[in-house]
Please model this.
Amino acid sequence: MRPDPGQVLHFSEDPTITRFAPHVAATAQQPEAYVWAVDYDRSPDYWFPRQCPRAMAWVRPDTTPEDRDRVIGPGGGLRVHAVEYGWLERMRTVELYAYRFDAREFHPFGDPANAHVAEQEVRPLGPPERVQDLFELHEEADIQLRVLPTLLPFWDQVITSTLGFSGIRLRNARSPQPRTPAP
Model:
């Protein structure tokens, strides 16, 4: 589920939205009100239930072979998304929808751009489309989907690497449990 040329997408679990008004999200790091959307490259970041914590990493031109092997792993492709075991059932059962918008109503956000924003009310190009099997989407896009007890140790490795990365809803991640030494 990705936008066509000239489009951006907004993913939601609510299939009844008819207009999108700019707002300041509770977790926003900026005071401006926006409507948020993503382009083709960043759409996979949202193939998850809304509250699902996820850590994502991908190969960039300046990624070292050592970091690629250490974080993504041999045979892992160019991108990895990690989630916690506790979210697998929700990923199987979530009803996720994609809203398509004319990209001309949005402008890039971030440096480098990681989203697109509109500062005025926007309306979707048509009814929302039901996003199908999230696991299948990852497989078709050749994105490794890794399942971990907790994301945070993986995230610590990702953010100190030469890979591109994004973490979403990490505040919802489980805290690592202290390991008990073997007898």
In short: The two ends are 49 Å apart (CA to CA). Residues 43 and 181 are 41 Å apart (CA to CA). The longest strand covers residues 96-102.
